[in-house]
Design a protein that fits this description.
Elements lengths: L1 H10 L4 H28 L7 H20 L1 H9 L5 H7 L1 H22 L18 H26 L6 H18 L1 H11 L7 H22 L4 H41 L17 H6 L2
Membrane topology: Multi-pass membrane protein
Organism: Lentithecium fluviatile CBS 122367
Subcellular location: Membrane
């Protein structure tokens, strides 16, 4: 109890610099996901997003939020809110808020992926067999919700009846979340390479998150040192995979812009208005809306 009391006294006097940095990270996480939410809604299509990418990201986020909520250190800090003021309490829980915002944002991506999933209900024979099917999208939702229920029930059991093993449960969730986060971009890289276009994948989101992964890895490396390689090494791996996906997407965007300019120039040379220029398969963000979703 004395250790807990000392921890509460420490939290009662938060460091303003650390508080400011933590708030900046929370806002940065939220802002980084907004372009992806907007792009899916604006296009009214989730074409181009890999179901496995969405599933791994959602399950990883669920495991991470369950991990931080069940860690003894987190529950101890939450218990200190009864002894310290509102501002120190908010500062103490910013780490939980960071994970919570990230989980909420990716869970919303999963919902948008399902809501705006492109379907050819009227012409099923026109369905591109290389694209994900509606059944796969439903499986993503089902598995995501099933894991959420599993993590919730398991956390309740280990926090209360089996409290002696709660750290083992939290460590399991943390390792699972880290492992899934490390590989979640691989299926999206494959999907983007197969489609030869970005589709509904947000390039601005990756532009924010890719350098963010390396910055976060550097901050962890400074704080934990070489011995903490398992923590900051994960973010380096994630940043590298995000960087590969970003480079691939930028290459396709550059290709499409060149093709669009060439098409407009050809039409202008033939004396036709640029407004009548047809779009190629990868020319526009609207391609899936006009073709694949009819």
């Amino acid at each position: 109890m004395s250790t807990d009391h000392e921890r509460c006294r420490e939290l009662a006097h938060p460091d303003i610099v650390n508080f400011s940095v933590s708030v900046f990270i929370v806002i940065g996480i939220l802002v980084s996901y907004l372009p992806q939410h907007y792009k899916i809604i604006a296009r009214r299509s989730s074409r181009g997003l890999s179901p496995l990418f969405v599933l791994l990201g959602t399950v990883s986020g669920t495991a991470s939020i369950a991990n931080i909520l069940t860690l003894p250190e987190s529950t101890r800090d939450m218990g200190c809110c009864q002894e310290i003021g509102s501002f120190p309490c908010a500062a103490a829980l910013l780490g939980i808020a960071q994970i919570g915002v990230q989980w909420s944002c990716f869970f919303f991506i999963m919902l948008l992926f399902l809501i705006f999933f492109p379907r050819n209900a009227d012409h099923p024979e026109e369905q591109d067999t290389s694209l994900p099917t509606w059944k796969e999208a439903v499986v993503v939702l089902a598995v995501s919700l099933a894991f959420f229920v599993f993590a919730f029930i398991g956390s309740v059991i280990f926090v209360y009846p089996a409290h002696a093993h709660v750290r083992g449960w939290a460590n399991f969730l943390g390792l699972l979340g880290a492992a899934l986060a490390a590989i979640q971009y691989i299926p999206q890289i494959i999907m983007t390479w197969r489609l030869k276009e970005t589709g509904s994948l947000s390039v601005p989101m990756m532009c924010i998150q890719t350098p963010g992964s390396f910055v976060f890895a550097a901050s962890l490396a400074v704080r934990l040192g070489p011995a903490g390689w398992s923590a900051w090494g994960l973010f380096i791996l994630t940043g590298c995979l995000q960087g590969c996906l970003l480079a691939l997407s930028l290459g396709y965007m550059w290709r499409d812009r060149k093709a669009a300019k060439a098409a407009k120039a050809a039409k202008a040379a033939n004396g036709q208005g640029a407004n009548n220029v047809p779009l190629s398969n990868g020319d526009s963000e609207q391609t899936p809306l006009l073709g694949g979703e009819s």
